[in-house]
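A protein record pairs a chain with a discrete description of its three-dimensional fold. The following entry can be read in just this way.
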Amino acid sequence: MSQIGSAFRWLASKAIGWLVSVKSVPADIEKELGIDKTKPIVYLLQTESFTDQLALAKSARALDLPNPFENIEIAGAERKRRYFLTRPQNLLTRRVKKTSIEDVFTEYFHLHREHLDIDLQVIPVFISWGRSAGKEKSGFAQLFAIKASPNWLRKLFIVLFFGRDNFVSYSAPVSTRQMSELHGSDKQIAQKLVRVARTHFQRKRQTLSGPTLLERQTLYNSILGATSVKLAIDEHARQKSISPEACRHEALKYIDEVAADYREGLIRIGDRLLRRIWNKIYDGIDVSHAERVRELAKNGHEIIYVPCHRSHMDYLLLTYVIYNEGLVTPHIAAGINLNFWPVGGIFRRCGAFFLRRSFAGNKLYTAVFREYLELLFNKGYSVKYFPEGGRSRTGRLLPPKTGMLAMTLQAMTKGIKRPVSIVPVYIGYEHVMEVKSYMKELKGKSKKKESPTQVFSAIRKLKNYGHGFVNFGEPIQLSNFLDESVSDWREQKALDDKKPKWLTPVVNSLADKIMTRINRAAALNGSAMVALCLLSSKTQIVSKKALVESINDYLQLFTQVKFSQDSTLPDEPADALVDRTLALNRFEQSQDTYGSMVSPKDDNGLLLTFYRNNILHMFAIPGLVMTAVFAHKQLEKSELISLVQTLYPLLKREFFLHHSNEQAIEYVEHLVDYMASVGLLKQQGDYLSPPVATAEKFHSAWLLSRTMQETLQRYATVLHVLETEKIIGRSQLEKQSQTIAERLSALFGMHSPEFYDKNVLGSFVMALRENKHLSNREDGNLAFSESSLALKRAIIPLVWPEIIQHLEQIHT
């Protein structure tokens, strides 16, 4: 009989095998779930379905897990390896029959008392075909919505339509030995296991498909019926002297302008299309720490993704990654500039909702948008928005815009039934398709308005872009954050549009925490590291041999003295990393008698600053240490520590660094010990000095000493203007500093557009104020102080002498 069964399975698997493409989640079941492949394994599925079992068998084979169709020997007898909670729904009566699962596990727990060596791993496996949650009203789409135990006819349609969108989602194993030791009879323990499994599968279904989609009329009624929107309509009618009905019609237009029109089918089509695009333009997408998000989803959290924003690709890449990690795709906040034909409608059906760049002066629009956002939260939709507001043109994180965060916290105070967690996300690329246009904009060219021509032109130019990186940072649970920030926030619940007094400072603190956690989850990559080395070289040209050695030294540095637990490093050796990066055809290679040399292609070092800036924050402290050692030739370790204590708070604010001031000093201690041990610097007693020019590590140390030079030069420029003027207004200080920085850039070949960027200069001025390096006068002006002078004296020795000389010759 078993031979007949095997033959039938073989024929069936061949017959439908071409229909089914399996995606296993998570990919690394041993690391993430703690599954031990050396211990006996049994599978627990929700429904006794032959196609589910075939999908599981295919997945298990790929993951090197036991075949579910093969029996397992327990206590000297062969038993099944797969068990089910229910049988499929009856075609006519729609009844769902239970299986004998409780009796099976009651027997197992009884065996455990007789055989102390038995310990099975029960692995719950949720099999999903498609991701449709269905709509509130019944219809044809409901045929394909994820159901717990569909009948055979429904399952036939599901497999035919969604065989290529199959997810096999594994959960952490349950030890039968540990379960058998719980209090209660064997039958009671078995009942508990089954009860927990039912709840677990319900949550899995919610994680994969999300909540039921709202009908459009329900959406209109929910928003227009909200108290805050009703008040806004009445006020708008009074101000404009028009009828409430006209205002209500205007509010409806705002809802249509804003709201997404999510279609799961388009997401599936998009997944297949994007998979082809990624395979064409990327040679890999590296995803790290996705288990954090799965844990939140498993525990029923409302998830808000807040990624950095470096390219229009961010919208697509992050959604694609989330979908393929077995999570429901989020509703995405997108700028109204992207709502143009034909992509606007496509984005809207993929979950995008659109917002204007400014809400100022339009209380009705503000009320509608805020109520829509709160509705998404309360209905359990995950949401994604970019805290920077727009794409970074320089490659570094922009100061966050806090409007969406403020509305999120206000929604919290009005009451969201589920726990809410913000997930910071670092997105990095080895090539960004818009980088050339960014450089033009930074040079003063106006930004091109998005259009169909621009989109099709970008698609036509798609080519090998290397690797993409998506790192999920440490989540922030908002209720815990508010408890720490405003202990009585629950007693001060906001009513309608009333803004709590504590909101602004708490939102600013939350925004800073998010940006810090994004940078803490950074990914080192080949393009960024090659760019950093070339830009740190005086001539922007480095021998390939020296380039490989320097990158290897930096990789070893961050391996031994981690920037953070969330950051990631390439998993290939430096020589292979450099070869793969150069193969992207973004750099010039030349050859002479002594070997290969690498330089920017077409003498365009400006473009490299974007990639360098993606990771520059990781080199801030190591670069400062090496800068100080080279500048002073011989430096007492205590003096280095004192210098870091002075400068780190400024670097922390500019680069969103995660170390506290105390942790930064501890980090410096570890860096110095490691650098001395490998020869990046010399340590004799309490004194530090750079390696001699003939030393093996000299070139790596020298390049590292130059990574922070432009930052320090910018600091010296602002402090020079302050000392010259003594008393000056903030805007005047920023303008004069910008003028001088532009001159220095032209004279000395600074290749960073942000070197004279007004926003970056303004951020430094704010950091000076926050750290009490400036005196604030009653008239609002800023005054040079003793603290300013001490800071300047600390920075001046670190800056190239020719820069200092030129600054001293300039009289502002």
